[in-house]
Design a protein that fits this description.
The protein is of the alpha/beta class. The chain is 48% helix and 12% strand. The strands form ten sheets. Strands 15-16-14-13-17-18-19 form a seven-stranded parallel beta sheet, with helices on both faces. Helix 43 packs antiparallel against helix 44 (1084-1118) and helix 45 (1128-1145) packs antiparallel against helix 50.
Length: 1523
Amino acid sequence: MADQSQMKSQEEDLPPDINDWSKRQVKEWALQLDHVDDKAAEILFEQDINGPSLLILDTADLREMGVTYGPAKLIINARDEVVKSKNEEPISSTNEPGRPCKPYPFCRYHDTYRYMESNILDITESGASDLIEPCHEYKAFINTDESTDEMKMTKFTEEVIRFAAACMNSRTNGTIHFGIGDKPNFTHGQVLGVVVKDREAYAIKLKSTIDGYFEHKHKQTAQNCIKPPRFVGVLNKNMTSSDKCVIEVDIVPDSTMCEENIYHTFNLSTKKAKKKAKGKETATSETKPSKQFFIRDGGSSRNLLAQTSSAKPEEEYNKFVDRKAQRFQLRKQAEEKHLSVIKSSTQGSRLSQMITGRTLSLDKSHFERYVIVTNKSHSTQFESLGFLVELNPTAVLDFDPESAKYGLQWHFDQQSTVSAHLPAKYKITEGVEDIANKLKLTRLTSWVFCNGGIEDENGSTEAPSDIDEWLMDKGASVRDVISFLCRKDVLPNKRFLVIFLLLSTVNEKMDPLVETFSTFWQELKGTDQILCICDGEKAFTSWTDLINARCGINISGRCIYELSLPEVNGTLWSLWSKNRRSSRILPCGGESKVLLEKKVERSLSTLDVLCVNQCEGGNEDKIVIEENFYKGGKVSWWNFFFSDQPGSIPFIKRDKFDFIMNTVIPDACSLRKACVLFNLMHVPGCGGTTLAMHILWALRNRFRCAVLKDSSADLSEVADQVVKLLMYDHKEQLPRVPVLLMIDDFDEKEKVFGLQQHIEKQCTKKGIQCKSAQVIILNCMRSESSEPTETTEETVFIGNNLSDMEQKQFEEKLVEIEKTHKNVNTFYGFMIMKKNFKTEYVQSVASNTLKSFNIEQKHAQLLAVLVLLDVYCKGASLSVSLCEEVLGLQPKPVCGTSKVEDGFGKFSTLIATCSVEGKVVFQAVKMIHSSIAKHCLQELTKTHNVNKAEITDLLLTTDKLYESTQGKDKLLQDVHHILVKRYHSVEESQFSPLIQDIASETPGLEEIVLQNASKRFEKNAVVSQLLARYYYLKKKDFLEAEVWACKARDLSKDSSYFADTSAQVIKHKLKNAIANYKEEPIVPDKLHMFLKMAQSAMEAFRETQYLAKKESIQRLLVKTDNCPFNTAGCLGEIQIGVLVIEVLAKTPIFSSKMADNVRHDIMSEVLSGKLELQAVEKNDKRQCKHSRYYQILKQFEDVLYNLRDRMKVNFDLLDKFYVNLGSRFGMKDSREQAARKDLFRCFTQFANLFCKTAALSKNKTMQNMLQLHEARQYLEMQKVDTYSGILSCLSNGIQSEKMNKIAKQYAFVFANHERSTVKERINFIYVNVVLSCINLASPHMKPYQDLIGFLLKVLCDQIPISENLPLYFIAVVLLWPQQHLPPQRSLGKYISQMRTSYHTVMKEMYNGKRPIVHFFLGKKQGYERLVHLGEIKSCIKAGQEEFATLWENGKIWKEKKVEEILCRVTGEVNNNLILADTCVPDLKVEVTPMFRSQLSWRADGSKVSFFIGFSMKGPVALDILTC
């Protein structure tokens, strides 16, 4: 059986019938037989043994040929087995006849129809019917393997001539098919296909053969009637292409050509013989007739002149000839009848109506989105599918597995940007909008390969499925795609259209498109959102029949079939305005322009690109657009375009417009930095965004302008696209036109700077030259304060107070508006500014509009929610889909239905529609103006008794708001924002403004609101954290706080922030218990309780520290998370230590009130681990009375003995963090400031306990040791016992006298050299350097040369690992080569070791931070050579944030005072670093550029100049210029 199955598998490629085997196939079969050698197979081949001869062979025949007896018996036995198995087995799936199909359209050559292997043509071989409907003849044309190419060609031409002559004489159209099987070997009409290597050869051969077969006088007619061969592709059953085709020749005996002629054909060989005879001028006689006369007789062609003994054929021939005139008339009549059937089609109009939802304009289509469903395409169709690219479908469901190779997706991808997916990507495994966001569903066309053809996640190509198997293999996953697309939270309800673009005829009921239609029909609950475009009437008929059979509905009314694809294409193009059809143009420098390809523009999915010819040729409704803007909607490019038109008053130019255009922009362009930034700070609603867009509009000819669509977009992706826009059509690395990028509504400047850094990195990566600014970011940001800030070259402020000039412009504009618009009194956005933001006007608008407000009504509830969101969350909105659901509006898939604004009734004047770029792009409604929202909220409370708590509760408890509608995730984000977002000022707020306002307005209701918030955000750790904070801060309910803190931790176990919350609960519980306990001394039980809580809190804070370090390391691996190190655990442990000290001070053992001051020193010794409790107890005179205290204290010995050390470790770590690492962009951090303030308080208490000493002993032998101890205590008290503490003296404003004293104390410690540690010796060097910066004339400062000598000695000592970083840093600073000092050849080694130490010591802390540059290389010598950061700051009168901006954009180095004190060094570029020149000719030092974009485009070996700064990470190059 195994042999038999093996034989079967080997025979799968052989024809099913042995009769069809060629001699080559017989040989191949014999070679596969076991125990039959190759020689036997060769003998069979040499003897021309093919299939039929194999069947009649016996053993004796084989022996005669030379095959030995054994193999001969095996061959005969194997043959019999094949015959037997073929008789027994059913027809294999590969050869099993398929379903019925239509023949290729008659006399057409560019249709896309293709046959599928084994399908059955549903038209039988026939004779003439109505003369116009073609007759058919089938030829398998497969038994030609042994034939030469010439023999195959001869067979083809002879069959065509015979069939053609028969059709011409019978005056009937006809088609002969080669590659279509017939009985007995195949099912009649079965598609087999043939392999044709040279198609052109067939056409050439047929043309020449026609001339040879037909009489000379009929040659031209025959050439016209016999059409060139057509090669129809044959698809495999899984819809992939094969190398086979069906050859078809159409015959059209047109009456105007054939008239009453009859057509004889001649045997070609006979005619050639005659020609030869004539050439020799000899005569030959023929015994056989040369003429042939074929007619169609049923399903075959019959020769009426064939030789026969009967006279009947001759009589038949004569009768046939006699009726030629009659046949001519019949043909002519048939042709006239066929031409008279002219359809008056209205399908062009219907297509326009259906695809636009009756708007008759694709610019203003009712449908916001389009989904395409399509099947096998043909390359000839592509030129007629241009509309598809412009339509920019949201998704394409493509059932052609070869689409990506040479099908529709390949063609589409040449012109637009697509995102290719398999259906599995649509399976809901996480949040719906998260999936849509990953798929970029509403930003790029999602091309879904519904029958395989592209690689899956594992890198293997998904195989296509046969039609019969598709439903089982892939049906479920495609249903998931359809269900996903039809969700109300993905695409807008009733505002998207599904277009079935049938590029191939659908013939089979099991075709995937039939099932797909059925699924869409069910999901959409009807066909109103479905349009079918069929390529021809046959395709339409087949399609509608199949859908009727599957779904029981007639869809002819939703089908377009009378229009050809070119006509469909032309019709749809006519529905776009000239603006949409025209090419878009970008500036390219020097007044030149460049076309912006649609593919490129769509790939910039995060950017709205403003082109030079923006809006030109558009047909937008000026009245509608202007009304939307004046009412309070966001400004669009159309507003500027309309204002530029002749006869219009120019767009209102704000006072700051000219300053930005003439000063800020030119100044930014001059900076030698890849990406520069300037800020447009504005009070909400005062026109800041409008001014920013006005700037872009005015500069669109000089810059490549773009607006960032979504402030929450991935910054690295944005940077990539910005640089792509910058470099578009620039071959060289020096772009001629910078990008002007407007960003709006970023929450924090830190994120703005983050975008700037990403763009810098991308420019560096691309090697873009930065001789001037290449990208200018216009940061349009809302100001939290309405108080004007000083206008600088980096920051422009727009307030809510118009100048006289601005007011005059508004007056003039109002006159123009009143001439062209009605209802000007509702143009609140314009009128608020025209009234110069008068509070009285806004109050009156709110009061009058809300007169009929009733919170019980749905539209009133929706408005209240929108008002609340707008006040507490910038840019909040509600999706149109959500509003329609809540208001009960039923949108229909046609225009003219009620607008969402109408659902708000009288409140509609307070809202405007807008487009929101979230995880999905959707239409939404928002409040028209922030000040109107603010006063509406006040009006609701004051007049209608609807407080903030009630509205918030409504927002949280109304489930309808959170059902599956578009914008659901955005709404949840906004609600989350107003609940948890705190605004940190110097006085840190405890809760969000909303929660604080509710607590102030309706005390106690905030708890109910928060409880409801926890139900709405049940799985959100931050909301659980919020509840915990509320209960321990506000309610002092620590048990409840612990519950919520535990829940937060359970939801996010590895987060240090939630671990900190658990620790904070215990800390506040301890603080509260201590504060509420008024008795002194503390009784033993309370002491035990306090210490127990302190121990738990310390453990919790240590866990926070552990998680914080772990997080920091993970962020370094991710590289995109710039969240800084969480210091809360370190500070928290210090705070607990202070509380423990306070508690112990109130116990009789350590209390200074109960004993003398020595007790205080004893506590210091115990908490330092230097004195054990047993020793204290032993010497205690009140030992018995205090025994209970000692018992309790001994239970916490581990906490007590290590308390000082743990506090000191955390103090030093935080000092190291704050002193050496700064904000990446120098921004103020109010939380950090608050933490440092509390850290200072804690250190004061720490120093008071641990850094005080008793009076010095008079014993001279002890006096020196005590003085040394006292000096060290003093240094620790001043926080200068660490290098970071000493460096902090440069920034904390320490007095010169105090610094002198510190130096004096260190000198004393240094004098006791044998007792000083390495750390103290290093600190001694730092003290001298810092003192030189504060008071260069100090007598306590060691001479510079001596200090260098001392440093060199320390470098020779054994250095603990912990001291490597500070030692090598100060060594690099001091040993940088200078005149009159011996060169230090080890400098490069010290730099390398410093960098290594930095990454070792600071690794857990430096994520999201930038190493601070402590010193710069100055022009002078000795100590004066070192310029500290504070000295640079003193040269520039600027605040912290302005200084940070000057640092980032490089302007700081252009200040004359700065240039005067710093030394400009030269160097050579080497592998993205600089080898800095020194005063030693052969000594070069490696320096890292501060901003890599200043270096990346420079070639190795380029000479540059720069300033040098020194940070703990190594020396850095600043302000790099070309020499």
